[in-house]
Specification:
The longest helix has 16 residues, at 234-249. The chain has helices at 3-9, 28-38, 57-61, 91-104, 136-146, 182-191, 216-229, 234-249, and strands spanning 43-47, 51-52, 71-74, 77-80, 106-107, 115-119, 150-153, 160-163, 203-206, 209-212. Helix content is 35%, strand content 15%. α7 packs antiparallel against α8. The strands form two sheets. It has a six-stranded mixed β-sheet with strand order 1-6-3-7-9-10. A four-stranded mixed β-sheet has the order 2-8-4-5, with no helix packed on it. The chain is an alpha/beta fold.
Length: 252
């Protein structure tokens, strides 16, 4: 069964022409561009196909509808072996799955990001990152912080389950994020030193309320990351970091 047949089953829009790498891997840039063109809503999400979203997902993202400024919402994922078919229309089956998820899933490291929620037309002219390969997720966080967007951590609201799987796909036979192939190497080159992770989100959402991060741990980390976000101002931020820590942090 191909993508066209699947799109009919789930009532999705099928887009046959997507710009891809020489290996046939779609480019993130073209996916975002085409989504902007066909989207009828202002709130969009890019999500990897191996992710299962929780029942409260729509409630968790509802506060974003009120935001006028552009933003990026991301969050941790939880890894889990999902060996049985899940009937999402069966309340008992669904309840059993999420009870298992609470006990069996393992929170992934802060470097792995599998969903991106944003306002339409937020991301234009992106580099040609190949999806499913390393680099583009961490680059998107860096790019968003550089553009002074609110980068919101939704980890406490959204338990996104990642289904553990093999890597016998298309031209792969092993994890492309561990053993780099040609598309992964190109992604790494595009990313360069421009990458952040979930610890560098500058906002968070909890119980439906979005707030700016103000903890000492975040401030200290952020002081060190400003020169990564704005390398052209690295010397200035280095001086600022020393002054700030001496005047404020060492006294606490």
């Amino acid at each position: 069964t191909g993508s066209y047949e699947i799109s009919k089953k789930v009532n999705a829009i099928y887009i046959p022409d997507v710009k891809s790498s020489e290996n046939g891997v779609p480019f993130l840039s073209n996916l975002f561009m085409q989504a902007d063109k066909i989207a009828s809503n202002d709130l969009l999400m890019f999500i990897n196909a191996d992710i299962i979203l929780p029942i409260n997902f729509l409630d968790a993202v509802h506060p974003l509808l009120k935001k006028r400024r552009k933003f990026l919402m991301v969050g941790h994922r939880w890894d889990m072996d999902v060996k049985h078919f899940i009937n999402f229309n069966d309340k008992n089956n669904l309840k059993s799955f999420w009870e298992s998820a609470q006990n069996q899933s393992i929170k992934h490291a802060c470097t792995g990001i599998d969903y991106f929620i944003y306002k339409k037309n937020t991301f234009k002219n992106l580099p040609d990152f190949a999806i499913g390969r390393p680099g583009y997720d961490n680059w998107l966080l860096w790019y968003s912080r550089r553009r002074m967007l609110q980068v919101i951590d939704a980890t406490s609201e959204i338990q996104a389950i990642h289904q553990n799987h093999h890597f016998r796909f298309h031209n792969l036979n092993r994890d492309p994020k561990v053993i780099l192939e040609s598309d992964g190497i190109k992604n790494k080159n595009l990313m360069g030193k421009n990458h952040l992770n979930l610890l560098d989100t500058n906002y968070k959402i909890s119980t439906g309320i979005i707030t700016k991060k103000k903890s000492i741990n975040f401030i200290n980390r952020n002081l060190g990351k400003l020169s990564v976000i704005f390398p052209e101002l690295a010397l200035l931020f280095k001086i600022y970091k020393k002054i700030y820590r001496r005047l404020f942090m060492y006294k606490q």
